[in-house]
């Protein structure tokens, strides 16, 4: 992805520039962080301002297992990219599949939690300010997890079809960067929703 | 590629039928074509937004006028503001950035050509969506069509209760869509500048236009994203029954203001920094001197961007914040005048002792310098909270920000049009018509916006569709409206000049201004691949080095 190094004629310095894939992803992450910041600020601002119940402490349970799943998927994707860089495509596929599974478990966890809140506790996005901010913030994150999982699934399909080789490690690393971001955002959302907000 | 194959390539282009030619423009991923598409698109919306402004001014030419109904007047000021910010100035600046940055840094295209095309079409369809509201927004009978909530759409006016029908939804969705387009373009600009520079083009040797657009793109990422977030919240409120801005359920109307202005004020700098970039390229070339204080210019720009992120609530002095917040935002707003002042002195120092050529682009840049100074001075006045308590939401504020948007941004953009028109079209514009455009526009601009300050000081609030006679506003409003017709005439001359010169202008050649940056080293218009061989640079003025090998810049930098 990075531009081929060129040797300058006037001096023997190599001309190397950063990879545009990584820079582009860093920019996207900055933009997404700004979006999440606004939602987090709204969540913090509206803590305790709901006029009616249910309140967070009555209905929220800390999703420790699903959090552990998502955060450990950051490690598995790192190990996956590392093995692809050293040309171990088989190991890469295994770690990659594990990442997909962990991410999917997390997403299923959100689904189960929402089902519980909606059908058992009667909390919807319309109920009160807590419902509005909770479903928006957690939903925005779940949407990002979904996008990440779609990307990971696409790569997994290419692995199964046998198209992925060592030279693709750089590109796959860019996707992994996005996944790390999704995990890091969850650390913030978790703190805001389940620690501060509860 | 050899010269022969280039000419056969050109000859081949001529024989393509019109439909196929247009199809090529639709599917193009070439940064130059996308740049021109952005610019043409923004020109169309400039005319539409201008007509909306004229409708408002005709309504206000005398008291108790009945040219349009109050409802239509509300739609006009909403559409005028939204159109001019999001679908005229931003796309126009993105168009120039798209066209010029790869050429100036010696690259063959942007970093992500397909993302570039995608971003353009998002912006384009965002604008079309906004204007489709005239046809499609009649949700309930009599609910009205185009958005009428003002360009900053304060809550709770945007809630389902007060804004029935779909006009506000069209407004929200079109800004959301075009906002994603802007973020895509910003990502592209940053990646292009950081990763595609030709050998030797270190950050310290980049043309100021590239530097300033880099800063602009960072601001777009930091500012437009919060707007997108706020628009998503508004959609949640309107479609899913959420309560973000619903005061009946404990929500806050003030938080919308914060979210909007966290976008809204940096947005001013998103618009004005590329305008600075044009001035920073045009003034040195027509003063025949290298830019004065290059590092100070870059530092001042970065400084402006930093401070710009912490001044937003000066739009909210009249809302009633506590005195700590007021003090903070007064001080930051005043502080931003310092780096801006540094830039004005640098442009003046560039002209000082230079051999100034008063061509049309230079005339527009000089007009910019003086008008931007006045715009900045009324800005410092308004930065004092007690002053804003008196004149907030008056025509004084309207005059102030139009001094920035028209007096500074539009003027430099016209300068940029004339300066790079020979490069983009290969033809020279008509200098007489260009000067006529300049003088008509200067007269119209000053008639309109100088005299607009006065009814503001006399207490005339903005956004009123009519007023009582005998308050001392009548004459001023008439002068303001007369100025608009001069501006409209100037725009007609401008469009006529562009069209006439495109078909009948003299061949411009690759370097009509004896310029110093890389875009003048390739043919006009440049071939699809920009440069036959990727250039190498050793100083900030690579073409000066090439033209003056006996006295190159790199010996001194």
Explain the overall architecture.
The complex is a heterodimer of chains A (198) and B (557). Chain A contains six helices and two strands, in the order ββαααααα. Chain A is mostly helical and 198 residues long. In chain A, β1 and β2 form a beta hairpin. Helix content of chain A is 73%, strand content 2%. Chain A has one domain: Cytochrome c oxidase, subunit III, four-helix bundle (Four Helix Bundle (Hemerythrin (Met), subunit A), Up-down Bundle), CATH 1.20.120.80. Chain A has a two-stranded antiparallel ribbon with strand order 1-2. The N terminus of chain A is likely disordered. In chain A, α3 packs antiparallel against α4, α4 packs antiparallel against α5 and α5 packs antiparallel against α6. The N terminus of chain B is likely disordered. In chain B, α5 runs antiparallel to α6. Chain B is globular and about 70 Å long. The longest helix of chain B has 35 residues. Helix content of chain B is 67%, strand content 0%. Chain B is mainly α and 557 residues long. Chain B is built from 17 helices and no strands. Chain B has one domain: Cytochrome C Oxidase, Chain A (Up-down Bundle). At the A-B interface, α1 and α5 of A face α6, α7 and α8 of B.
Low-confidence stretches of chain B: 1-9
Per DSSP, what share of the residues of chain B sits in E-state strands of 2 or more residues? under 5%
Question: Regarding CATH, which class of chain B?
Answer: Mainly Alpha
Supply the CATH superfamily name of chain A. Cytochrome c oxidase, subunit III, four-helix bundle
* Rg from alpha-carbon coordinates of chain B: 24 Å
How helix-rich are the residues of chain A, as a percent range? Answer: over 70%
Quick one: how many beta strands of chain A? 2
Number of domains of chain A: 1
CATH architecture title of chain B: Up-down Bundle
The biggest beta sheet of chain B is recorded as:
none
Alpha-carbon Rg of chain A, integer: 20 Å
Helix count from the secondary structure assignment of chain A: 6
Subunit organisation of the chains: heterodimer
End-to-end CA span of chain B:
34 Å
Do you know the CATH topology of chain A? Answer: Four Helix Bundle (Hemerythrin (Met), subunit A)
């Amino acid at each position: 992805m990075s531009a081929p190094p060129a040797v300058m004629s006037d001096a023997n310095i190599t001309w190397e520039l950063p990879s545009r894939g990584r820079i582009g992803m860093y920019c996207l992450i900055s933009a997404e962080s700004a979006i999440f910041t606004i939602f987090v600020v709204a969540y913090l601002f509206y803590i305790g301002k709901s006029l009616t119940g249910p309140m967070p402490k009555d209905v929220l349970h800390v999703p420790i297992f699903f959090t552990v799943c998502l955060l450990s998927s950051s490690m598995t994707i790192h190990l996956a990219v590392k093995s692809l860089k050293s040309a171990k495509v088989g190991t890469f596929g295994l770690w990659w599949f594990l990442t997909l599974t962990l991410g999917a478990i997390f997403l299923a966890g959100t689904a189960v939690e929402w089902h519980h809140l909606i059908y058992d506790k009667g909390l919807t996005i319309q109920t009160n300010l807590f419902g509005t901010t909770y479903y928006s913030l957690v939903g925005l994150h779940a949407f990002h997890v979904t996008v990440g999982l779609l990307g990971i699934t696409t790569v997994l399909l290419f692995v199964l079809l046998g198209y992925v080789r060592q030279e693709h490690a750089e590109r796959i690393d860019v996707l992994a960067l996005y996944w790390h971001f999704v995990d890091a955002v969850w650390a913030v959302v978790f703190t805001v929703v389940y620690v501060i907000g509860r | 590629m050899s010269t022969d194959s280039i000419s056969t390539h050109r000859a081949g282009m001529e024989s393509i039928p019109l439909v196929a030619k247009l199809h090529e423009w639709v599917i193009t991923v070439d940064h130059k074509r996308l740049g021109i598409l952005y610019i043409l698109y923004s020109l169309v919306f400039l005319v539409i937004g201008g007509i909306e402004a004229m409708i408002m001014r005709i309504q206000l030419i005398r008291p108790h006028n009945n040219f349009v109904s109050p409802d239509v007047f509300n739609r006009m000021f909403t559409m005028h503001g939204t159109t001019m910010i999001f679908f005229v100035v931003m796309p126009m600046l993105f168009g120039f950035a798209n066209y010029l940055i790869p050429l100036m840094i010696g690259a063959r295209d942007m970093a992500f050509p397909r993302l570039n095309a995608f971003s353009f079409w998002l912006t384009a369809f965002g604008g079309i969506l906004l204007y489709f509201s005239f046809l499609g927004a009649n949700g309930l009978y009599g609910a009205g069509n185009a958005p009428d909530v003002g360009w900053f759409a304060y809550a709770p006016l945007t809630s389902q209760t007060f804004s029935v029908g779909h006009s506000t939804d069209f407004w929200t969705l079109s800004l959301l869509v075009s906002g994603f387009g802007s973020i895509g373009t910003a990502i592209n600009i940053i990646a292009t500048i950081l990763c595609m520079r030709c050998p030797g083009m270190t950050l310290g040797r980049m043309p100021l236009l590239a530097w300033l657009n880099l800063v602009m793109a960072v601001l777009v990422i930091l500012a437009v994203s919060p707007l997108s977030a706020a628009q998503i919240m508004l959609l949640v409120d309107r479609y899913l029954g959420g309560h973000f801005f619903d005061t009946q359920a404990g929500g806050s109307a003030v938080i919308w203001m914060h979210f909007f202005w966290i976008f809204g004020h940096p947005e001013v700098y998103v618009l004005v920094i590329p305008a600075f970039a044009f001035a920073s390229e045009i003034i040195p070339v027509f003063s025949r001197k290298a830019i004065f204080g290059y590092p100070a210019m870059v530092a001042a720009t970065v400084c402006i961007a930093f401070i710009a992120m912490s001044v937003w609530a000066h739009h909210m002095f009249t809302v009633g914040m506590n005195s700590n917040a007021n003090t903070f935002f007064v001080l930051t707003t005043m502080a931003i005048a310092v780096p801006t002042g540094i830039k004005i002195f640098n442009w003046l120092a560039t002209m000082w002792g230079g051999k100034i050529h008063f061509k049309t682009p230079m005339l527009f840049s000089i007009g910019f310098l003086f008008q931007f100074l006045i715009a900045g001075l009324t800005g410092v006045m308004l930065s004092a909270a007690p002053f804003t308590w008196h004149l907030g939401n008056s025509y004084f504020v309207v005059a102030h920000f139009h001094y920035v948007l028209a007096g500074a941004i539009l003027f430099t953009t016209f300068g940029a049009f004339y300066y790079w028109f020979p490069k983009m079209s290969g033809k020279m514009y008509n200098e007489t018509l260009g000067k006529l455009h300049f003088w008509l526009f200067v007269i119209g601009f000053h008639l309109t916006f100088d005299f607009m300050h006065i009814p503001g000081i006399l207490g005339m609030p903005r956004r009123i569709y009519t007023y009582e006679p005998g308050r001392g506003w009548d004459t001023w409003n008439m002068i303001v409206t007369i100025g608009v017709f001069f501006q409209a005439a100037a725009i007609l001359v401008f469009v006529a000049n562009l069209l006439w010169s495109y078909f009948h202008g003299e061949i411009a050649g690759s370097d009509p201004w004896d310029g110093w940056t890389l875009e003048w080293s390739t043919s006009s218009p440049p071939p699809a691949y920009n440069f036959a061989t990727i250039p190498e640079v050793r100083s900030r003025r690579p073409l000066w080095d090439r033209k003056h090998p006996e006295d190159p810049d790199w010996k001194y930098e």
